[in-house]
Amino acid sequence: MKTIIPIHEVKTKTTPNDSFFESYEARFKALADRKRLQIMYELTQRGKTCVCDLCDIVDMAQSKLSYHLKILLDANLITREVIGTWSYYEINNSEVNGLLSEELCCIFRPTRS
Amino acid sequence: MKTIIPIHEVKTKTTPNDSFFESYEARFKALADRKRLQIMYELTQRGKTCVCDLCDIVDMAQSKLSYHLKILLDANLITREVIGTWSYYEINNSEVNGLLSEELCCIFRPTRS
DNA sequence: TTATTAAATCAAAAATATTTGATCAATGAA
DNA sequence: TTCATTGATCAAATATTTTTGATTTAATAA
């Protein structure tokens, strides 16, 4: 699986090359799904949340939720913390704020900290 | 006693429904392609540009470019002006600024006007 | 008129992404 | 130990997107 370069390191000094656009493509692809946007929304509202709770909240089969969480995680839009058998996911504030407008604040991105 | 939610708070106090997420899905889908991001970048840099010029600039076959422009147009991220047989495309400033962060200014979104 | 150019659209093929159900690995409890 | 629970991963089936080359439409020039 491809590693996503953190958003603040990706900024261009010269004409962007293909890997520059590729890097943003990965982030926007992760956002380009209504189910993943709903996950982003719930994590924005609730803060750090356990997968088992999220399963009920977004009404999704476990393997399907896991698939979508992985896409958001690989895009660096959320982070994961494992405690015992539980996994907790949380919005990656700096990444999301660096990508989305202030108008989207409280919907998909948290308030600026 | 029922509490009336002030209109400017309705957006965040009400749980978004599927069509809300669907609407953002469409925008992010349009951005979720490196070729379309390159088109956005070039339009941001150059301003209103003719399809025939864009074809050379992004080095893309005409029908392919037309396909990608339609996706951006349908997502309301760019606008079109037809003059004779030429089509000129331009960034839709307000839409893009309402969606993307200020950090992306000058890359995919124009400076705030 | 005919020829040329710009650009949208179409249909088929190819490439990607998503869903589904099953399985697996790890943790903790009985 | 055995059992139950959490959640990641796998492979196959579906579904969706993208690419390609051909065709079409419209405008203009010869």
Automatic annotation (TrEMBL), chains A, B:
Annotated PROSITE patterns: HTH_ARSR_2
Recorded GO MF terms: DNA binding; DNA-binding transcription factor activity
Stated name of the protein: Winged helix-turn-helix transcriptional regulator
Organism this protein belongs to: Paenibacillus sedimenti
Keyword field: DNA-binding, Transcription, Transcription regulation
Pfam family, one: HTH_5
CDD domains: HTH_ARSR
InterPro entries: ArsR-like_HTH (IPR011991), HTH_ArsR_DNA-bd_dom (IPR001845), HTH_MetalResp_TranReg (IPR051081), WH-like_DNA-bd_sf (IPR036388), WH_DNA-bd_sf (IPR036390)
NCBIfam families associated with the record: HTH_metalloreg
PANTHER family: ARSENICAL RESISTANCE OPERON REPRESSOR, TRANSCRIPTIONAL REGULATOR, ARSR FAMILY
Gene3D superfamilies the UniProt entry points to: Winged helix-like DNA-binding domain superfamily/Winged helix DNA-binding domain (1.10.10.10)
Domain spans labelled HTH arsR-type: 16-111
